[in-house]
Write a structure and sequence with these properties.
Layout: E1 5-11, E2 24-29, H1 35-43, E3 61-66, E4 70-74, H2 85-100, E5 105-113, H3 120-132, E6 136-141, H4 148-162, E7 170-172, H5 181-192
Amino acid sequence: MFKNIEFIKSVFKLEDLPPPEFPEIAFLGRSNVGKSSLINAFLNRKKIARVSSTPGFTKALNFFRVDFRFYLVDLPGYGFAKVPPEVQKHWQRLIEGYLKAIRDFRCLILIFDIKRKPDEADIALIKFVNYLKKPYCVVLNKIDTLSPKEIELQTSLYQKTFKLSQETPFFLTSCKEKQGIDHLRKYLFACLGLKI
């Protein structure tokens, strides 16, 4: 599927962003939603994005170049990371600055833990990407942890809370059980103009 996946750099300051040479997809989510696991599942690799049980492990914008065709960008998590407030503010400036930059964004993958209820930080993220008019999809991850009825209730809660239109791409995934990954991958390939 993917032949050449290369880590390019970790960006701690906006002036260090790599040139926008390729289309980009970016993975965003609060701490501990399974973002790194989802990236690894999407790429069909085990250890491209480092998985950590420690919230807030990703501290920079991590750029990966895939088959010399697109950038995959892993963003720092937001929310309950056990870091000082000034570090959280720096991450917020870094993320917002990156998303406001003039780059070839094909899709922002907004990841949420389906077990949780959406809170103010989650709603703020949706409002921000809507304000920026960036293309995005919503992913409810860790569906293996709930029953079908609970999944249905939580899905409805997220859709109502975020006021998502019928056109908003919406995916249910489990990295552990490999559920929904193929559907998400197919959608992102279409965003990138690639064939599976």
